[in-house]
Design goal:
Layout: E1 2-7, H1 13-25, E2 29-34, H2 44-51, H3 67-74, E3 77-83, H4 85-93, H5 99-106, E4 111-115, H6 119-123, H7 125-136, E5 140-141, E6 145-148, E7 154-158, H8 162-173, E8 182-188, E9 192-193, E10 199-200, H9 207-218, E11 222-228, H10 232-235, E12 243-248, H11 251-262, E13 267-270, E14 277-279, E15 299-301, H12 305-314, E16 323-330, H13 335-349, E17 353-358, E18 369-375, E19 381-388, H14 389-403
Parallel strand pairs: 1-2, 1-3, 3-4, 4-5, 8-11, 8-13, 11-12, 13-16, 16-17
Antiparallel strand pairs: 6-7, 9-10, 14-15, 17-18, 18-19
The structure holds flavin mononucleotide (FMN).
Flavin mononucleotide binds next to helix 4.
Length: 404
């Protein structure tokens, strides 16, 4: 998404550095438009470095590209954080004295502001009248929060935390079509210990599961994300007050956590890569070359978690109407063969939807992008998507909603 972040002249401008980081990390294209006063708090190089776009306050730069309207026209969302009393007044009056002002007038995108100022300034009738004007025009407010303000006072006026601003701003754009639904999602790859330092694992990063969780939460769902060895960096994309993360290690731990979450879930998505086998014995101490035992590992089969969840549902141990989605990563390059295998797998596992993805150098494991076909009732293709994993997540949720 194209997001413009307007930054105005308050101390909280430093917090917006983190806000921009959160947005870019989540894959959004962010252009920062500071006011002249904002640059007294945080300078141009910082904004350019974290957004990777040129930054200016003026309508007179890049005139050939009509930047003063182009930014607003191209934006999917505009966030002003912090929003000073002065900028709030300018917005209410419709002033276009700088690049932020013209961008705000030229945009048809939703506008979200995060006010920050001293309590007296916030409570002043002029500010409150301006806020009422902006609200009546459909501007969304996040905060201000109560708490310690610059200068040591406390009261309402503190800018909301960046995480909360991101969450609420993105929720403005997302349809709330999963509101009230409880969902359980598994992500990442399990590791089956051989000894205290070695394991059998796979290359799943958890990105697709994290994207599914983030998309569901943005659309109003309550999410349990069962994460097997997912990096903190990847989990950061799924930071949301409606997502509870349960970390697990082995297939057995994942199974327990998923069964627990699925018992009350309206939708279950198994995006994790779960080991089919585990070493029959786990050595108590590190195995050494000298022992000569590392050339052969005896394996025993793990439980088929997806099939177990489907069986629990069939046995009435799940909410009425629960939808179960499984994933299949295939290396077969022939799309027809891949689809056929996916159809058989869907039948065998007893799930409603099966998202089959090609795992190659550009797609699937450890990659930012994915490409899936979604197999549904009667083995038909009910959806497909390729591109960013968040895009793929949208297609999967669309298929789940259609099915419900
Ligand atoms: C140290 C300092 C902190 C300030 N913090 C705020 C603030 O949090 N909120 C606010 O509305 N104004 C604050 N101001 C005043 C604004 O910087 C001033 O009103 C300025 O004209 C805002 O311009 P802008 O809205 O174009 O960025 C602060 C000023 C200073 C010197």
């Amino acid at each position: 998404m194209n997001i413009v972040v307007g930054v105005t002249g308050g101390i909280a401008a430093y917090k917006s550095v983190h806000l921009v980081r959160l947005l870019t990390k989540a894959g959004h294209d962010v252009t920062v438009v500071p006011t002249e006063d904002a640059l007294r708090f945080v300078g141009t190089p910082t904004w350019e470095a974290i957004s990777r776009h040129p930054v200016t306050t003026s309508v007179h730069d890049d005139v050939a590209k009509v930047r003063h309207v182009a930014l607003g026209q191209a934006a999917d969302l505009v966030i002003v954080a912090p929003a000073t009393a002065n900028t709030i007044a300018s917005m209410a009056a419709g002033l276009a004295s700088d690049l932020l002002g013209t961008t705000l007038l030229a945009t048809l995108a939703p506008v979200v502001i995060a006010p920050a100022m001293h309590t007296e300034m916030w409570r002043h009738p002029a500010t409150q009248a301006n806020i009422a004007t902006l609200r009546s025009r459909g501007v969304h407010l996040v905060g201000p929060a109560e708490g310690e303000l610059a200068g040591g006072d406390t009261g309402p006026g503190r800018m909301s935390e960046p995480e909360e601003i991101v969450e609420q701003a993105l929720a403005v754009l997302a349809p709330q079509d999963l509101a009230g639904l409880r969902v359980a999602i598994s992500a990442g790859g399990t590791r089956e210990p051989i000894d205290p330092v070695r394991f059998l694992g796979n290359r799943s990063s958890g990105r697709q599961g994290a994207a599914l969780a983030a998309e569901a939460a943005a659309r109003g769902a309550d999410v349990v994300l069962v994460a097997a060895h997912v990096d903190a960096e990847v989990l950061a994309a799924a930071e949301h007050s409606s997502i509870r993360v349960r970390r697990v290690g082995t297939a057995a731990e994942l199974s327990t956590a998923m069964k627990d979450a699925a018992a009350t879930a309206d939708a279950v998505i198994m995006a994790a890569a779960v080991a089919d086998y585990r070493p029959a014995e786990v050595a108590e101490h590190k195995l050494t070359k000298e022992q000569g035992v590392l050339t052969r590992i005896d394996l025993v089969e793990n439980e088929d978690v997806v099939a177990a969840l489907a069986a629990a549902r069939a046995g009435g141990r799940a909410p009425e109407g629960q939808i179960i989605v499984a994933f299949a990563a295939e290396t077969l390059t022939d799309a027809g063969e891949r689809r056929e295998r996916a159809r058989r797998k869907r039948e065998r596992k007893g799930v409603d939807l099966l998202a089959v993805n090609l795992a190659d150098a550009e797609h699937g494991f450890e990659q930012a992008d994915n490409a899936v076909e979604i197999i549904g009732d009667g083995g038909g293709v009910v959806g497909e998507a390729s591109g960013a994993k968040r895009e793929v997540a949208r297609a999967i949720w669309r298929a789940v909603i259609d099915m419900r």
